[in-house]
Specification:
Layout lengths: L6 H15 L2 H7 L6 H15 L4 E11 L18 E8 L5 E5 L8 H6 L2 H7 L7 E3 L10 E2 L10 H26 L13 H20 L9 H10 L10 H20 L2
Parallel strand pairs: 1-4, 4-5
Antiparallel strand pairs: 1-2, 2-3
Length: 267
Amino acid sequence: MDGPMAQQTVSRCLQEVTTALNAPHILRKHIRFPQNRNERNLIKQKFYDKYGLPAVVGCIDCSHVAIVRPSEHEERYFNRKHFHLINTQVICDSDLLITNVDASYGGATHDAYIWRECEIRNHLEGLQDETVYLLGDSGYALREHMMTPVDNAVENSPEGRYNYLQKRVRCTIERTFGVLKGRWRCLLAARELHYCPETAGKIILACCVLHNMCIRAGIEGPELTEEEHQSERTRQVPFETAASSTQALQAGRRARNSLIQMLERNR
């Protein structure tokens, strides 16, 4: 086709492609959390081979995708930095593949709440006789299956060395966001999706499907520049330490202490 494409044509094509990529069978095929022990072991082994941290099945975090002011329930999407957004939760593996994504919550929702409502949390809690960890920042509550940093750890102590390794591995999710938003720049927090929240969420999911297709095909994508990374960090709301029930927190501390002791024995 010669000449510029009409806006109506672009909008129609975007809607058709987004709808196709959000079909349930497409999402199940391309964004899939490991469902059995063999699949989990494969991911664990890749994390261990790269970083030396055992039993990790993914890294988790949320990233903000700006949207225009919604016409309904604006308060759900307005964040503390005074713009509207989708707070998008992503879990990735060591290859930057997205294994789970939730783009249904607004910017007023805390990361920890999104995780509490996530079906993957129930899935991990239901596993028997298997050690599995997700790695999260201090915005998540420490649990048997959620390893977070140790607060106020002394450098070069066992806890400090654990924190260094945990952060190094957790950078995988930051790299995933960088590659995802480098490819699909409409997701950058400095920009805005000019769609209602439901449509914006579908666009985010579509971009995640395409991201995974590119990763599996070995197609390298442009990562964000340092200036763009800084812009992203500026627009993201700093995490707040998650509240935690005493019993679950104690179980998480025992699991984390066991992991720290094992890392020290293997030094």
